[in-house]
């Protein structure tokens, strides 16, 4: 059957328009990553640097990340590859110190660099994806109130996550996020929770006599039977076992239940990973 040229052109235009629309709606890897982290807003006044708006709190899982004062423009990036954090070379650090010694007041006080330790709390400042180099760069700044740093210093750093050559362009957001999570795990400021727990502990001590008479054996039995999380469990089953999570991150088919000391990953409503 013959088709008129006008019909063919209209059909091509409709198909092409659908393809363009689909491509326009598909978020990039950087957009997907940026949507999962709330970035901190920093500012400064006559009193120095301060946090204007808090971001998603992260806890450092691997130490050795090199930080510099927030006021410095140049950051020497640390690199994460094959499960290890590699700091800048000694030559680069020495050059940085000399540069700061000439131009930075903080350098004269001996505060040019600082190693961010495992367990420190930080805020993300930005995320940059470079498919050509197969890298994802994550900028951070320390949460000094969380780390009880007084006076606050607000050291900042950048960690470059190096992926295998030619893999990042076709990689889904999940594996990239999991790799970032090996260095920066989602966290929360539990200082207030700790105070509430201490208050609850005092109340429990006051009523300890009654508990010893009526429920001591039951509590020991509960402590002796730890809850088990297995692959394939539903969100309801996990909630019954661990209780309500501190945070829930919805990523379409993927969900994250964030507890104080673990992260449970669901894909299509089933547990696939626990960290």
Spans where pLDDT lies below 50 across 5 or more residues: 7-13, 18-22, 98-110, 191-199
Shape: globular
Biggest sheet architecture: 9 strands, mixed
Number of strand segments? 15
Structural class: alpha+beta
In which range does the helix fraction lie?
A: 25-40%
Mean pLDDT: 77
- Domain count: the total is 2
| Series of H and E elements | HHEEEEEEHHEEEHEHEHHHHEEEE
Number of alpha- plus pi-helical segments: 10
**What is the C-alpha radius of gyration, as a whole number of Å?**
25 Å
Please report the distance between the alpha carbons of the first and last residues: 61 Å
Strand content: 25-35%
Structure notes:
The strands form 3 sheets. Strands 3, 4, 5, 6, 7, 8, 9, 10 and 11 form a 9-stranded mixed beta sheet that branches. A 4-stranded antiparallel beta sheet has the order 12-13-14-15, with no helix packed on it. A two-stranded antiparallel sheet has the order 1-2. It has helices spanning 5-25, 29-36, 90-103, 105-108, 144-147, 173-181, 191-206, 208-214, 216-224, 235-242, and strands at 41-45, 48-53, 58-60, 65-69, 78-81, 84-86, 114-116, 121-130, 135-142, 155-162, 184-186, 247-251, 254-258, 263-267, 270-274. The N and C termini lie far apart (61 Å). Strand 1 (41-45) and strand 2 form a beta hairpin. It is 36% helix and 28% strand. By secondary structure, the protein is of the alpha+beta class. The protein folds into 2 domains: 29-186, no CATH class; 230-275.
């Amino acid at each position: 059957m013959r088709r008129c040229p006008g019909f063919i052109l209209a059909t091509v235009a409709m198909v092409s328009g659908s393809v363009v629309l689909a491509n326009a709606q598909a978020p990039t890897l950087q957009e997907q990553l940026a949507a999962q982290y709330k970035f901190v807003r920093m500012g400064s006044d006559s009193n120095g640097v301060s946090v204007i708006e808090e971001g998603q709190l992260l806890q450092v899982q691997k130490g050795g990340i090199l930080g510099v004062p927030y006021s410095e423009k140049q950051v020497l990036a640390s690199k994460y590859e094959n499960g290890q954090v590699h700091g800048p070379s000694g030559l680069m650090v020495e050059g940085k110190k000399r540069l700061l010694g000439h131009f930075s007041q903080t350098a004269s006080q001996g505060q040019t660099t600082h190693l961010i330790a495992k367990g420190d709390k930080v805020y993300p400042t930005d995320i940059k994806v470079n498919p050509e180099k197969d890298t994802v760069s994550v900028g951070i700044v320390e949460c000094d109130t969380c780390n009880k740093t007084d006076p606050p210093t607000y050291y900042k750093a950048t960690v470059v996550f190096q992926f295998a050559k030619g893999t990042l362009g076709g990689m889904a957001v999940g594996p990239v996020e999991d790799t970032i999570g090996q260095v920066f795990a989602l966290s929360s400021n539990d200082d207030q929770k700790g105070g509430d727990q201490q208050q609850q502990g005092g109340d429990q001590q006051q009523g300890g006599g009654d508990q010893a008479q009526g429920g001591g054996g039951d509590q020991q039995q509960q402590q002796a039977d730890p809850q088990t999380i297995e692959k394939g469990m539903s969100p309801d089953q996990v909630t019954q076992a661990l209780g309500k999570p501190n945070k829930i991150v919805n990523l379409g088919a993927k969900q994250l239940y964030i507890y104080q000391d673990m992260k449970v990953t669901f894909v299509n409503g089933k547990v696939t990973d626990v960290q």
